[in-house]
């Protein structure tokens, strides 16, 4: 039942991401003209806007939404480098919709903490959404705290598929050339960071934290995005540490520590029509601790889209008591919402696992569960040495319909 629950939650997350995608496509119809300069905006190049001097209160109680809205309007209308300064303190806000294009480059310097309102009636969708902005930076040592514990009990997605989605904490839509560094994302109501239609965004030295049993609190999710770099980041949540959705290309994940959570996942793939390929993904020098999956690729057997997942490299990965260290699941079918033994349309090929070491909490350290109709091809396993840490069973691999080569692996894990 626990496994079914995990699969069920992942399907919900995928549905939420695609629902958000439809809404965001509608936003593209808005004018692309730069935001008009509000009264009092600085006309010269460069400027700094201090939230506490615009009426924001860092007392952890007073709603400071208006101050942030004013700061964004002035910063986005200003030229040169504009900085929104959040000084030390706890600033409570409702939904923040930061929309561009902007005239200059905008930096949000987060020295204090942002607290998401616990009044769900204020939110139509997400908490902080940044739309159509180029050259954006969010830096500092402060926290973006969704205050999720106060509302997680209202998440009904474990009980029904058609559930109300709680607000994501930080959403970047159509953002080009972005940097998120140093900050902490804490206890999101739903996803912590969601990237959609973004290009050349780097997440570096970020911490993402939520309890292992918190519902649908993915650390970082991306879809239809290119050139995304996640570097030296620590993630522990109640769902995927990182989830890579359809349409992702040129993804680099390096130096990430994951746990608790569901691992680093690609997919689900094929759930909806018109999904795009996933290609050129590198996961390197990462550590996974006590997660329910390690590195995972999952697709629906009755896929609604024809797409390809290819050119993935997983290298120098340390597994520490991970339940499914290496898993390709082309028969993903959570809670019977799909048709088993369907006509798979997802191709998975050219996948390399190199120097994967450590321990598994289950005997099946490697699971390649590929489709009879479209087998996995070009799978390379070099120096895969993950051992079951228990005593009653031996380390093993389950490899169905997978074609490739294996060198330097534990003999129990040499699928080919």
UniProtKB/TrEMBL annotation:
Ranges of biased composition (kind: Basic and acidic residues): 23-32
Biased segments, Low complexity type: 33-42
SUPFAM superfamilies named among the record's database cross-references: Pectin lyase-like
Residue positions of the active site: 262
GO biological process: carbohydrate metabolic process; cell wall organization
Cell compartments where the protein resides: Secreted, Cell wall
Protein name (database record): Exopolygalacturonase
